[in-house]
Amino acid sequence: MITKELLKTEIDNVPEENFGVLYKIIKALEEPTGEKENAFKSQAEWRAFIAATYGSTSDAPLERGEQGSLPGS
Question: Higher confidence at residue 56 or residue 36?
């Protein structure tokens, strides 16, 4: 059986240059399993978020450029 004490001992053996990766792994494991809770409580909140996000680019609209073709097609 793996205990917290065993994990802590192993963490003490991890080189400092790997702390960032180890931290990300630990944080990822803290996420509850299953379906994530919707960050928006209502469709109105979602629409307001989209409007604010789009509004941040309204003075420089995004455009899709010309599409090339793949070689050999």
Answer: 56
